[in-house]
Amino acid sequence: MDNIYRYSVKLLTGETLSLKSLQDRPVLIVNIASKCSFTPQLAALEKMYRKYKHSGLEIIAFPCNQFGKNEPLENEMLREFYQSHFSLSFKVSEKVLVNGPDAHPLFNYLKSHTRGIAQNRAVKWNYTKFLIGRNGELLSRYAPRTKPESLKQIIEGQLHHESSTIQFAKV
């Protein structure tokens, strides 16, 4: 089984989420940080989630402090920040590493399954996005500057079981 379903994620709520529970749903995975210039993307991600969650979309955000030390907050403070500033209703993991020897195994999978120009490339910055198809396999990787609303068409295609062309954006 070469997909995300073999991984688990520890959420800020204290729960452990088995990604296998997300089978047959498209999933958008994003590494985030509270003090980053891209942090306003959280509002767009939340809007997207509220619009498409009933159709099956899942979003999982992974706070990470590896880029410019933009995520100084820890556990409860993280939860409070994301709730009070963005009212996030999608899943947020505990703080993780996305690069290096101690990177979360999910991110090692995502990096190793990126094809094209970004193949096996380290995550370069906060708000790198990975779109996972209904089968749990990586469809696309998007650079931090890619606005969530620009993913609307491909996400709608996944929600409607359409066969989308796999494209990897330059990252």
From TrEMBL:
One Pfam family this sequence matches: GSHPx
Keywords for the protein's UniProt record, in alphabetical order: Oxidoreductase, Peroxidase
SUPFAM superfamilies: Thioredoxin-like
Superkingdom, natural source: Bacteria
GO molecular function, one term: peroxidase activity
PROSITE patterns recorded: GLUTATHIONE_PEROXID_2, GLUTATHIONE_PEROXID_3
Family that this chain belongs to: Belongs to the glutathione peroxidase family.
Name the record gives this protein: Glutathione peroxidase
Biological source species: Pseudoalteromonas luteoviolacea DSM 6061
